[in-house]
Amino acid sequence: MKENLITINSLSTKVQDRDILKSLNLSINKGEVHVIMGPNGAGKSTLAYTIMGHPKYEVSEGSIVFEGENITELKVNERAKRGIFLSFQSPEAVPGITVENFIRTAKSSIEDKNISPFSFNFKLRNKMNSLKIPESYSERYLNVGFSGGERKKNEILQMLLLEPKLAILDETDSGLDVDAVKIVSEGVSMFKNENNSILIITHNTKILEHLKPDFVHVLIDGNIVKTGGEEIINDINENGFSSFKTLIEK
């Protein structure tokens, strides 16, 4: 029997007094890959940010339980220390801080201990090579002058080095060409094991051509209206999301 990692119970979320998520339920076990799909504006990114604890997103009802602990009121850094990671849809550039220093500092903060620059550099370059990122990028300022694809690959690099228990990938395949999608997918596959979980949030199916999800959830108007397997992906490819909109409870 698989061990539960995160359970979301009747979660409702507001943004500036506007209801976005509406009594959403979701449970993810260790070793599983879950996919949230839905049209633009359905609440997919809101779900990602709410799990991560972004202060802009107000939980008006429900709870988030991570490894048996209610983390609904915890701050972002406290959730990160417990093993939750969010790959941003549009990663920001951070002038003055190199890629290597940023990730090493983040890992030191999460693990609450000093990380040897020498041993970390070895691991960093190994992962960069696997993602086909030039080693010189480790000394560049974070995302400054990076293309969209380079920024997304840098997010996957952070995930591989931070080794979270739950990785949330928000539109990681957005704006990527075919080769970049394949590389990112390979990085996600390298990360996946029996002790962690992945939540992929997307509105298209490019990245899913290389990753096999355990469960696919369709999110419409702030709630999950359908859960199944890869047959849902095929349905979306053929018919879009229109057929799922009729499943919204009136």
From TrEMBL:
The keyword Thylakoid does not apply. One of its GO terms (molecular function) is ATP hydrolysis activity. Keywords: ATP-binding, Nucleotide-binding. InterPro entries: AAA+_ATPase (IPR003593), ABC_transporter-like_ATP-bd (IPR003439), ABC_transporter-like_CS (IPR017871), FeS-cluster_ATPase_SufC (IPR010230), P-loop_NTPase (IPR027417). Signal peptide: none annotated. It comes from the Bacteria. Residues 6-246 form the ABC transporter domain. NCBIfam families: sufC (TIGR01978). Belongs to the ABC transporter superfamily. Ycf16 family. This is Fe-S cluster assembly ATPase SufC.
